Amino acid sequence: MAEKVLYVFSAIAVGWAVTFLLRALPFLVFGSGGEKPRWLGRIDGFISPVIIGGLIVYSFSSLEWRTPWPYVALAATVAAYLAFRNSLAGIIAGTALYMALLSLAGCMVPVEAAPESSARNPPVRVGRSGIAFRGRHVVPDDVPRLLEKHGYSREKPLHILVDDDYDDKRALWVFKHNYIDRAGYTKSVWVHSQKGASGTVGILPKADGVKMPYQNTRSRGR
Questions:
Q1: I need a labelling partner for 34 at 20 to 30 A (CA). Which of 17, 81, 134, 218 fits?
Q2: Strand 124-127 to strand 211-213: parallel, antiparallel, or no bridges (unpaired)?
């Protein structure tokens, strides 16, 4: 407990010292009462627009073009600023319009639920024709990226379907160990489409040398 308290106070002290030095640096370099150099005055004239432009780019860089409302709010912000020559007026106008469009006009974009992997609906398939992700053939390097892009959880089992006629255990081990496990999907489960759920239909070596049975997708006799 004492170590955590010391760590917190140390972090606060370091943050305070760095902030203080950054604030004091201009006075230490140029003095408190002297005139600023001309080159500093020229920089001062456009540094604020550059910072604002950077903030705008950063704010809009992660948006997808699914809805025009953020861009409508940006236009309203600029228009209000030009009309009143007041930054606060622009901020209030843009924020108010954006929130109104989202809540009152029914423009809220629904958040898609994370997809679930299951034995009957495995996202990854391995066979003689190669590797497929959700029905589309891909290279092994693409599988971890696509799993993350589509929101598959690393904390839940990831089901990988192995075609009935595919028995290259070495290739399966390499795919699981080098691509799936290393990407953090360590709870992956092999599934098979033809054998009974209560029976063992094959064994595959895991990275630690322990043999791992298939999990099956259909009950025996179907």
A1: 17
A2: unpaired
Does residue 65 lie within any of the structural domains?
yes
Rounded distance between C-alpha atoms, residue 1 and residue 107, angstroms: 48
Query: Could you tell me if 6 and 97 lie in one domain?
Result: yes
Mean model confidence pLDDT for the chain: 78
Is the model's pLDDT at 108 over the cut of 60?
Answer: no
Q: What are phi and psi of 51, to 5 degrees?
A: -65, -45
My answer on whether 142 and 186 are in the same domain is yes
Task: Kindly indicate the confidence band of residue 62, based on its pLDDT and cuts at 50, 70 and 90.
Answer: low
Judge whether residue 105 has pLDDT over 90.
no
- DSSP per-residue codes, the chain: -HHHHHHHHHHHHHHHHHHHHHHHHHHHHH-SSSPPPHHHHHHHHHHHHHHHHHHHHHHHHT--TT-SHHHHHHHHHHHHHHHH--HHHHHHHHHHHHHHHHHTSS-PPPPPPPP---SSS-SEEEETTEEEETTEEE-TTHHHHHHHHTT--SSS-EEEEE-TT---HHHHHHHIIIIIITTT-TTEEEEEEEEETTS---EEE-TTS-EEEPEEEE-TT-
Phi and psi torsions of 90, nearest 5°: -65, -40
Residues 210, 162 within the same domain: yes
59 within domain boundaries: yes
**Which range of residues forms the domain containing residue 209?**
124-218
pTM above 0.70, yes or no: no
